[in-house]
Amino acid sequence: MNIENTKAQMRKGVLEFCILSVLKEKEAYTSEILDTLKNARLLVVEGTVYPLLTRLKNDGLLNYRWEESTSGPPRKYYELTELGKTFLNELNGTWTELSDAVNIITNQK
């Protein structure tokens, strides 16, 4: 069994929740999202995030707008839609329940 594959699957399972959480307070462009994830020690590559952002947008959870940049090409800023905020609130509840259950199971003596 490959432990790295299992760890990657665990990270992938919470990535959508983490990205939506990054965007709950303010809009951000992809590099900011990646930096926030990296600062939290959730290492993700751009090639994983871009398709996920597109899917979240297509699902109606995110909107984006283009803004000119003084240091390169225009940037695409993402923000949560109202549906995205509702979805994130549901995920927060589920995460709390799941986290509590896993902690109970893994901390048993």
Automatic annotation (TrEMBL):
Residue span, Transcription regulator PadR N-terminal domain: 19-89
Highest taxon, organism lineage: Bacteria
Range of residues in the leader sequence: none
Official protein name in the record: PadR family transcriptional regulator
Organism: Flavobacterium aciduliphilum
Source organism phylogeny: Bacteria, Pseudomonadati, Bacteroidota, Flavobacteriia, Flavobacteriales
